[in-house]
Amino acid sequence: MRTRNAERGTRNRRPIFPALFRVPTSAFRVLLVVALAACGRSDGPRVTVTIPAGASLEAAVDSLTASRVIDRPGLFRLYARLRGLAGSLKSGVYLLRQDEAWSDVVEALARGRGVEQRFTVREGLRLGEIADLAQRGLRIPRDSFLDAAQDSALLAQLGLPDQAASAEGYLFPTTYLLPLHIGAHELVRVMTHQFSQQWSPEWQARLDSVHFTRHQLVTLASIIESEVRYDPDRPFISAVYQNRLKRGMRLEADPTVSYAYGRRLKRVWEKNLAVRSSYNTYLHAGLPPGPISQPGRASLAAALYPADVPFLYFVAQADGKHIFSATYAEHLAAIRRVKEMRRAARAPRPPGR
Description:
Elements: H1 2-13, H2 16-20, H3 25-39, E1 46-51, H4 57-66, H5 73-82, E2 92-97, H6 102-111, E3 117-120, H7 127-138, H8 142-149, H9 152-157, E4 175-178, H10 184-198, H11 201-210, H12 214-227, H13 234-247, H14 254-261, H15 297-304, E5 313-316, E6 322-325, H16 328-346
Antiparallel strand pairs: 1-2, 3-4, 5-6
Helix pairs in contact: 4-5, 7-8, 8-10, 12-13, 12-15, 13-15
């Protein structure tokens, strides 16, 4: 009797233990994915994510997904709710890594650990000038920034062309929102990533039409950026340089001479044109080895889409606008006209006028 009861009890108890571990395979996978994503780490590029005041958790998840900080919004939403983020979400602008560990994302949004600094880089600045800005505004030693911008391993990791000896030309000019104590390498990452974000998909296809590599295109755009003071002139200056390249003429671009000197020249004189440098386009045909400044979107677009004009020459007026010419004779006449306008502007005016 006892034996049968014991056996009956044992039979009744057997299913209890397997039931404890009878977790559906799909649920187990969900738990595993959540655990791995929450604890993982990423070396992905940093991106800025804005969480507006009063934003819901759903809206925040949408912003994080759009910026590729997370790639499983449904699972992240579940994880965030379990961590209590729905009731502690802080608005602000955040600098987060793409594919960042979910635990770090939740911690940042819950504590309001957002961006603390603005860093503005205008179009046409050179690498050394950005290094000066970083030292003054971000307390990044100038030499540290220059070393990071010339770190071949970092440049390769960032996907810059093999021809790029530095990040010159790829540090996109805009206003950045950055965390306190950002380092030199991280700043180079953020700025070059912004360049990639600004590079439109159709531009890549357009490169074949203008017969440039991306590095050559950025180089030309940087020269255009350094020449232009009047925005509508960009596609015309682009046309001049591209027409010269097609004819095998030297570019003879003054900004490349100034770059060859390693400092900005207030004016390029004839004596400066003999400086020995591969960047001196008065001595060497074709494009220089690399960019000479940071071009913005307008100059990149102008390099890709030059005006359909036969111009080969241009001369700047006092107001920053240019006079364009198709022949050298027209160009000489334009130079005389500009000189006359300058003399007239300097001439004393009669009393009462």
